[in-house]
């Protein structure tokens, strides 16, 4: 029995491929998905199914040390991407 079939029978799933990131190096995919997750939780809330999907993807791709560093940068205001304010009301968000 091959490994893929064993995983499928055990209910173990991984993230689906993304055609935008076809190279073996998943660094950009990791970062972009983390940013998408941060934007999503600010606009839709952490309980959104969309946000949970972004979370699943970035947690599978990104090393924990990177995630910890990015979360620290967000807290101190040095993260290199402008994120919307943490609110479910998007009326205050003005893209730059």
Automatic annotation (TrEMBL):
Q: Which key words are in the record?
A: Disulfide bond, Mitochondrion
Q: Does the keyword Calcium apply?
A: no
Which InterPro entries does the entry mention? Answer: COX6B-like, CX6/COA6-like_sf, Cyt_c_oxidase_su6B
Coiled coil region boundaries:
none
Instruction: Give any Gene Ontology cellular component.
Output: respiratory chain complex IV
Pfam families, A to Z = COX6B
- SUPFAM superfamilies cross-referenced by the UniProt entry: Cytochrome c oxidase subunit h (SSF47694)
Location within or outside the cell: Mitochondrion
Instruction: Give the protein name, as stated in the record.
Output: Cytochrome c oxidase subunit
Q: Which organism is it from?
A: Rhamnusium bicolor
> Upper lineage ranks?
Eukaryota, Metazoa, Ecdysozoa, Arthropoda, Hexapoda
């Amino acid at each position: 029995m091959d490994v893929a079939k064993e995983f499928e029978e055990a209910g173990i799933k991984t993230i689906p491929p993304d055609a935008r990131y076809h190279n073996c190096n998943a660094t950009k995919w990791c970062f972009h998905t983390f940013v998408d997750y941060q934007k999503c939780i600010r606009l839709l809330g952490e309980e959104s199914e969309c946000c949970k999907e972004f979370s699943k993807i970035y947690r599978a791709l990104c090393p924990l040390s990177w995630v910890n560093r990015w979360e620290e940068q967000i807290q101190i205001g040095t993260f290199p991407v402008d994120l919307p304010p943490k609110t479910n009301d998007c009326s205050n968000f003005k893209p730059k």
